[in-house]
């Protein structure tokens, strides 16, 4: 009996000590891996939707990657084929690197995007999984960590570069189109028992995040160009240079023409007959091509007054530049519904360009399901952007609210309730107005007026590039979210 007791004690001691002294012994089955993860105060990776989550195109992930992860991710994708984005909230690593590679390749296979949200943390094997995303992005407050690895044989850097131990990782990076230089960088960044947090410059250098499609340098370059003195303030009747710029950009993107050309000229009376020109192109939807979302922005401004050029960098070179880079983004990422890109003229004179568009629609008005309007979106001292139109059209608000949680912007709602006397009513004050009067749902992105509004001092040097970039990204994401999950209303 005494011998049995001693043997039992030895078994218990070995069972308790093994996870700490020889963790690799326990890493060969899902059950044992889960046990090891729990001893390290972590949780097994899981995939889930959040409570009250409106759109089901994003799946969330948290925990440590283990042998079950491959099966779990396959099952998740099979049961939810609508998923386009994996949101990695807190993925601290992997306990099974071979399974991690296979699971990550499933993400690549299904063209799923990866995103690290506000205050999210992804490290080690989690970083390798993040890199498998078709499009990858990180919230400014999120952290991504890297380090070397160690095996029971030796430390990673002790193996020669052509050793088989490195090959599986190098092959994986090659398959997901990540430069192998990044692999060797992670080997030197931190030892296996530590974490190195990547800087913004390093994230950019190694292509950790993909281009958002917003093309920030080009966004700013376009805004700067069309708000320069060379464009003479883009006044109606004297904005042919701007028209040529927009027309050429549409042609470069191969946007489809609704008519024989992108130009839709019109006349209007303002003391005397005047002429304006809307420029319109579109991208055909891949699922519902007969239904249209109209993205619009006015490109005209005040022109030259008393020999002084009013450049209108914010009003509305900002919206015009956004319109063009959004057209470029969606030309590379075809939408579900067709999208019309409309550069409106004569807004400053009385919304005449957008009035002409809805009075002489290039497609059936009944087939236009939403208008997105962008007017003054590049400067605000408080980092505030208004989303206007969710009071009369509340079905769109949950999508934008969900995105706003992860945005560095202060996203506000209002200026769309006629009973709210604390704010000006904007539902008829920009190019959204004619759509609103025709009963077409519309959302406007705009900031409140600044000291240079409608003054000759509204120049490019006064915009806030970071704010502007974040606003355009929010607009892009909102359009994508709504396009892919268009709400059905009575």
Query: Which residue ranges are poorly predicted, with pLDDT under 50 across at least 5 consecutive positions?
Result: 16-40
Taking all Cα atoms into account, the compactness measure Rg is 27 Å
Largest sheet: 8 strands, mixed
Ends distance: 78 Å
> What structural class should be given to the helix and strand makeup?
alpha/beta
Number of alpha- plus pi-helical segments: 15
- Number of E-type strands: 18
Average pLDDT, rounded to a whole number, is 90
C-alpha geometry = elongated
Beta-strand content bin: 15-25%
Helix content: 25-40%
Comma- or semicolon-separated keywords:
490 residues, alpha/beta, 8-stranded mixed beta sheet, 15 helices, elongated
Summarize the structure.
It contains 15 helices and 18 strands.
């Amino acid at each position: 009996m005494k011998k049995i007791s001693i043997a039992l004690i030895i078994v218990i001691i070995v069972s308790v000590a093994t996870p700490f002294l020889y963790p690799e012994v326990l890493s060969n089955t899902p059950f044992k891996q889960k046990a090891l993860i729990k001893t390290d105060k972590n949780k097994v990776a899981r995939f889930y939707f959040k409570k009250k989550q409106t759109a089901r195109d994003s799946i969330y992930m948290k925990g440590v990657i283990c042998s079950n992860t491959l099966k779990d991710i396959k099952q998740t994708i099979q049961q939810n084929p609508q998923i386009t984005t994996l949101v990695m909230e807190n993925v601290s690593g992997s306990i099974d690197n071979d399974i991690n590679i296979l699971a990550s390749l499933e993400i690549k296979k299904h063209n799923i995007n990866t995103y690290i949200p506000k205050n999210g943390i992804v490290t080690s094997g989690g970083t390798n999984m993040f890199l498998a995303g078709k499009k990858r992005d990180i919230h400014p407050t999120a952290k991504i960590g890297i380090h070397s690895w160690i095996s029971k044989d030796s430390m990673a850097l002790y193996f020669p570069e052509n050793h088989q131990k490195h090959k599986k990782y190098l092959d994986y990076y090659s398959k997901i189109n990540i430069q192998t230089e990044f692999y060797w960088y992670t080997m030197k960044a931190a030892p296996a028992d530590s974490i190195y947090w990547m800087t913004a410059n390093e994230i950019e250098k190694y292509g950790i995040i993909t281009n958002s499609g917003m093309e920030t340098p080009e966004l700013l370059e376009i805004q700067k160009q069309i708000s320069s003195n060379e464009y003479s303030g883009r006044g109606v009747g004297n904005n042919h240079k701007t028209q040529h710029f927009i027309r050429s950009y549409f042609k470069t993107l191969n946007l489809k023409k609704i008519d024989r050309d992108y130009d839709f000229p019109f006349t209007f009376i303002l003391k005397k007959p005047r002429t304006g020109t809307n420029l319109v192109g579109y991208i055909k939807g891949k699922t519902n091509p007969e239904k249209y979302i109209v993205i619009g922005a006015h490109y005209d401004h005040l022109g030259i007054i008393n020999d002084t050029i009013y450049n209108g960098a914010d009003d509305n070179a900002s919206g015009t530049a956004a319109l063009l880079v959004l057209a470029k983004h969606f030309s590379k990422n075809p939408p579900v519904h067709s999208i019309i890109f409309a550069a409106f003229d004569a807004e400053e004179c009385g919304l005449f360009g957008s009035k002409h568009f809805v009075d002489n629609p290039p497609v059936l008005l009944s087939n236009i399901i939403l208008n997105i309007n962008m007017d003054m979106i590049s400067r605000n001292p408080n980092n505030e952007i208004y989303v206007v139109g969710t009071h009369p059209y509340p079905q769109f608000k949950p999508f934008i609210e969900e995105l706003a949680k992860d945005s560095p912007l202060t996203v506000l709602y209002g200026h769309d309730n006629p009973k709210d006397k604390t704010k000006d009513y904007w539902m008829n004050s920009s190019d959204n107005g004619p759509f609103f009067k025709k009963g077409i749902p519309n959302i406007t992105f705009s900031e409140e007026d600044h000291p240079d509004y409608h003054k000759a001092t509204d120049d490019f040097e006064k915009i806030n590039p970071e704010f502007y970039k974040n606003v355009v990204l929010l607009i892009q994401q909102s359009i994508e979210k709504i396009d892919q999950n268009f709400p059905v209303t009575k």
